[in-house]
């Protein structure tokens, strides 16, 4: 299998996602520039974190209107593999309506970088299969616009379909509704999360718990 | 145009005289402008150069020493580390957010100019009275500016320091240090190469911002701040990020000869500096420069300090390839000139020659201007403050209460409020980030090695004695690296001083340089890059001499790195190093006596170096479970920090009643934790090496510090330690300003 790490102008976490996949998980990984229009040869497409186009409009807004997002939409629809959006990548996915809701300014009104406590809210998705239900873990966050919001109907649907796979616990660092840190779509082939699993890919970095998310996906790709 | 006086550009009458004499004609206004930038203190180092020559510049690992955009040291594994510190004090005093942001952008491009990928930033900040609105405005602006730029470009801000002193009230200091990694074979320098080579300007389009920024950095900050705001450059981190990626990609093209970022002085300074290193001339055509603002005059184009721009010298034939890479990343790039044999800096606008200057006069002529002896300088009227307006009296009467109070001192208190606004974990190298440990530990992926970096200054020490303070600061920086098991490799220094036209400043400057030199020689490491910032002075106040030392070291084996917090109950905790320290210059003295005091005697540099090497060896042998450098707040604060960072307590059965032992400060002292199994071995080793080793207490599973029977919970200590910075912004204190 091959994984793609998408590089937009202003992407900053592309190297980290690449290292986590290639060194941490051992997957054949390539960088893909944002002008690419065909992603069909990849089993996993990662939209990494960063400040695409400086995030001078809303975070992720301009990147969500680049041609590669048409390719991502096509990829998701045809179920060629999995899409993971981390931090700015999650913002791009909500801005392009591939995932519901929106990511708004943290309630602290400041950029926050620190490891935070999290809980696996659904261990039955392809992204979380290596975790126990309700398992607690810690991952770094690094964002100013991470407060997840959605209208009541969307929230109800997210809960009903168990699309919320990751929640902040015990502390909600950014004011996200229902402590939401990560969600998936109904088909469970797109995952968006604000914390950075790719930053915890080696014990020297504080932990290697992050690679369990990617390993879950790889196992699903390889063994169905 | 009315006849204009070049003195209004900051040139001094004797300088104007030398220029007129050597030119043999009256320079035009564009030429005066170019001279004023090149001859400014900021660009020419005219005052500091004779002193800076005293610093040791060479050493076994030095690949590139001072005089380039950054110093470079060989790491011995095919990689080299490039690093440099730079000040952005004056812009930050006027416009803290953009001043600090562009400071970060500028130092990053210095590292990029070496062909290195920037991997980390550190910032050393000084502010005035924290209980004033002005300081809160500056602090929050500077911190958001640093975060805005560093976070957006994906270079982690991994360390630094924030300190407060009354004389920084009008003149805060913002010193930014960047570290980069480069393969030895990919190393670049800021040269033009042979005549016939082409010059490419790449990056952001040129606008009207920052014109005369370097001139502005070379005068005292007096007068309405608003009038100087147009001199402050505006940074755009998005362009900065594109410039990093495009430049590193372009450098893969064979035929790129050299590159340099456009910083202070813009096109008026960078191309001539490159040409000097190759012994060539330069001819530019300003009509080819991509502009952000239409219809800029040649004067404005050549003096603009628009950010996020680089100049590349390339062999003819590869220019289209280079331009294509920049355009792929959405940046402007244009051939704007060529390298010529004639040793002149010739600037055209289309066919019209707008400036034609002899290179040697432009770059070195300022050294011919006669300088009066120090004795002839004025003594100045601005003064320094030697008493603490916020002295705490009476001092708390028990060890427990004293510690709880000391942990709230702004200089000691947790800087979490600051560093959590910085992305410090991007690039996944930060084994030890800010707020933990003594330096930043940056993993060299693919190896077991790490680069360890720190920034240190101490205005109290250099106020007590500029020479002795500077010695101690260098040793202190080395001690921080050694706490993580890293061998110091090299120094970059940022020298922040008051007005050098006044005798006291120049005397302080000379003494500090001597101190830096002597300590660097004792450690056997070079000063490979640096920056001087003068004129940090207002009408009434001058900053204390503030050398800030950035130091980089190499840790060979991450698996042997001691922890920063107590590791294991039952382990024995010792003081490694001299039990003698000074209350003079300490936080204790300043906080409770309200004075600076004196040093008892000069530190013995050679002894500190010996003790430091012995600790490195003990760490290498795997004996040291945790280690922490003793610095501000002395041993008492150091043990509290080691407890707070983890979850174990410490029991100290009997406290020596001498405050100098627990609260004194001096480099060459660490708290170390040793397993009882190794204790005899280590005690013997220390004896053999002549290292004073003093048992303090035993690590406890119980999360309390026990000081001669008085116990404090770690939660109470944490609460005290974390309270101060958030408190600044709760409006508890409404003093004026």
Instruction: Output the number of helix runs of chain A.
Output: 5
First-residue to last-residue Cα separation of chain B: 42 Å
pLDDT averaged residue by residue of chain A: 96
**Strand line-up in the sheet with most strands of chain B:** 8-10-7-11-9-12-13
List segments of chain B where confidence is low: pLDDT < 50 over at least 5 consecutive residues. Answer: 733-737
Computed over alpha carbons, the radius of gyration of chain B is 26 Å
CATH domain topology of the largest domain in chain B: Phosphoribosyl-aminoimidazole Synthetase, Chain A, domain 2
Strands ordered across the widest β-sheet of chain A: 2-1-3-4-11-10-9-6-7
What is the name of the CATH class of the largest domain in chain B?
Alpha Beta
Structural class of chain A: alpha/beta
Give the CATH H-level superfamily of the largest domain in chain B.
PurM-like C-terminal domain
Count, helices of chain B: 24
End-to-end separation of chain A:
12 Å
Determine the CATH superfamily of chain A: Class I glutamine amidotransferase (GATase) domain
Describe this structure in words.
The complex is a heterodimer of chains A (224) and B (737). Chain A is α/β, with parallel strands linked by helices and 224 residues long. Chain A is built from five helices and eleven strands, in the order E-H-E-E-H-E-H-E-E-E-E-H-E-E-E-H. In chain A, the strands form two sheets. Chain A has a nine-stranded mixed beta sheet. A two-stranded antiparallel sheet of chain A has the order 5-8. Chain A is globular. The two termini of chain A are 12 Å apart. The mean pLDDT of chain A is 96. Chain B has 737 residues and is an alpha+beta fold. Classes of the chains: A alpha/beta (224), B alpha+beta (737). Chains A and B meet through helix 1 and strand 6 of A and helix 7 and helix 9 of B.
């Amino acid at each position: 299998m091959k994984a793609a790490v998408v590089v937009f102008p202003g992407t900053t976490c592309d190297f980290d996602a690449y290292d986590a996949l290639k060194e941490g998980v051992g997957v054949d990984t390539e960088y893909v520039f944002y002008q690419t229009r065909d992603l069909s040869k990849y089993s996993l497409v990662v939209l990494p974190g960063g400040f695409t186009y400086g995030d001078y409009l809303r975070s992720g807004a301009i990147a969500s209107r680049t041609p590669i997002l048409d390719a991502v939409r096509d990829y998701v629809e045809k179920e060629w593999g999995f899409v993971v959006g981390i931090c700015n990548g999650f913002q791009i996915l909500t801005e392009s309506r591939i995932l519901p809701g929106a990511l708004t300014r943290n309630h602290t009104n400041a950029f926050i970088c620190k490891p935070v406590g999290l809980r696996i809210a659904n261990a039955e998705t392809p992204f979380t299969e290596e975790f126990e239900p309700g398992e607690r873990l810690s991952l770094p966050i690094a964002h100013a616009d991470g407060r997840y919001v959605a209208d009541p109907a969307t929230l109800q649907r997210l809960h009903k379909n168990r699309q919320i796979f990751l929640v902040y616990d015990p502390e909600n660092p950014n004011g996200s509704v229902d402590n939401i840190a990560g969600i998936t779509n109904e088909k469970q082939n797109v995952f968006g999360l604000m914390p950075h699993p790719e930053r915890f890919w080696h014990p020297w970095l504080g932990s290697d718990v992050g690679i369990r998310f990617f390993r879950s996906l790889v196992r699903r790709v390889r063994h169905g | 145009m009315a006849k204009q006086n070049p003195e209004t550009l900051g040139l001094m009458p004797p300088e104007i005289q030398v220029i007129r004499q050597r030119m043999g004609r009256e320079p035009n206004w564009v030429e005066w402008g170019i001279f004023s930038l090149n001859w400014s203190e900021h660009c020419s180092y005219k005052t500091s150069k004779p002193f800076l020559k005293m610093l040791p510049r060479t050493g076994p690992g030095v690949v590139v020493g001072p005089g380039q955009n950054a110093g470079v040291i060989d790491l011995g594994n095919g990689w080299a580390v490039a690093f440099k510190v730079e000040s952005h004090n004056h812009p930050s005093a006027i416009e803290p957010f953009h001043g600090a942001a562009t400071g970060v952008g500028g130092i990053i491009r210095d590292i990029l100019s070496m062909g290195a990928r920037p991997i980390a930033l550190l910032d050393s900040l000084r502010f005035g009275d924290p209980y004033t609105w002005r300081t809160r405005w500056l602090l929050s602006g500077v911190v958001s500016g640093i975060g805005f730029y560093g976070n957006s470009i994906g270079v982690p801000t991994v360390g630094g320091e924030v300190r407060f002193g009354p004389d920084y009230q009008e003149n805060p200091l913002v010193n930014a240090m960047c570290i980069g990694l480069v393969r030895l074979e990919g190393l670049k320098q800021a040269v033009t190469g042979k005549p016939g080579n082409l010059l490419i300007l790449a990056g952001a389009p040129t606008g009207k911002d920052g014109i005369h920024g370097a001139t502005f950095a070379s005068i005292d900050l007096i007068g309405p701040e608003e009038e100087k705001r147009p001199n402050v450059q505006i940074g755009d981190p998005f362009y900065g990020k594109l410039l990093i990626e495009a430049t590193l990609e372009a450098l893969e093209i064979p035929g790129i000869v050299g590159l340099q970022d456009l910083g202070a002085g813009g096109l008026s300074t960078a191309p001539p500096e490159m040409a000097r290193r190759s012994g060539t001339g330069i001819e530019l055509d300003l009509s080819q420069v991509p502009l952000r603002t239409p219809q800029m005059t040649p004067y404005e184009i050549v003096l603009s300090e628009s950010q996020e721009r680089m100049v590349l010298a390339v062999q003819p034939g590869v220019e289209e390839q280079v331009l294509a890479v920049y355009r792929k990343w959405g940046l402007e790039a244009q051939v704007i000139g060529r390298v010529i044999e004639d040793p002149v800096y010739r600037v055209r606008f289309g066919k019209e020659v707008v400036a034609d200057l002899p290179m040697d006069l432009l770059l070195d002529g300022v050294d011919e201007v006669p300088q009066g002896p120090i004795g002839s300088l004025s003594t100045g009227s601005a003064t320094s403050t030697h008493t603490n307006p916020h002295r705490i009296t009476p001092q708390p009467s028990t060890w427990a209460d004293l510690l709880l109070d000391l942990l709230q001192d702004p200089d000691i208190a947790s800087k979490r409020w600051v560093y959590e606004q910085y992305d410090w974990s991007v690039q996944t190298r930060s084994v030890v980030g800010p707020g933990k440990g003594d330096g930043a530990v940056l993993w060299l992926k693919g190896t077991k090695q790490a680069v360890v970096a720190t920034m240190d200054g101490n205005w109290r020490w250099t106020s007590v004695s500029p020479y002795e303070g500077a010695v101690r600061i260098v040793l202190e920086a080395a001690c921080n690296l050694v706490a993580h098991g890293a061998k110091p490799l090299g120094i970059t220094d940022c020298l922040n001083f008051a007005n050098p036209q006044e005798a006291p400043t120049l005397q302080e400057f000379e003494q500090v340089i001597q101190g830096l030199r002597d300590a660097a020689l004792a450690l056997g490491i070079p000063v490979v890059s640096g920056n001087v910032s003068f004129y940090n002075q207002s009408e009434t106040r001058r900053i204390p001499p503030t050398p800030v030392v950035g130091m980089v070291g190499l840790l060979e084996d991450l698996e042997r790195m001691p922890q920063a917090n107590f590791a294991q109950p039952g382990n024995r905790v010792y003081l490694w190093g001299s039990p003698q320290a000074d209350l003079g210059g300490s936080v204790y003295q300043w906080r409770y006596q309200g004075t600076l005091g004196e040093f008892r005697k000069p530190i013995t540099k050679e002894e500190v170096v010996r003790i430091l090497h012995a600790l490195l060896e003990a760490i290498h042998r795997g004996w040291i479970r945790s280690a922490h450098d003793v610095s501000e707040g002395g041993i008492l604060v150091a043990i509290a920090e080691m407890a707070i960072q983890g979850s174990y307590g410490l029991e100290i059965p009997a406290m020596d009643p001498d405050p100098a032992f627990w609260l004194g400060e001096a480099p060459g002292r660490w708290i170390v934790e040793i397993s009882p199994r190794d204790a005899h071995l280590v005690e013997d080793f220390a004896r053999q090496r002549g290292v004073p080793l003093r048992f303090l207490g035993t690590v406890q599973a119980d999360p309390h510090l026990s000081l001669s029977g008085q116990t404090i919970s770690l939660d109470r200590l944490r609460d005290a330690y974390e309270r101060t910075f958030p408190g600044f912004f709760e409006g508890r204190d409404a003093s004026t300003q």
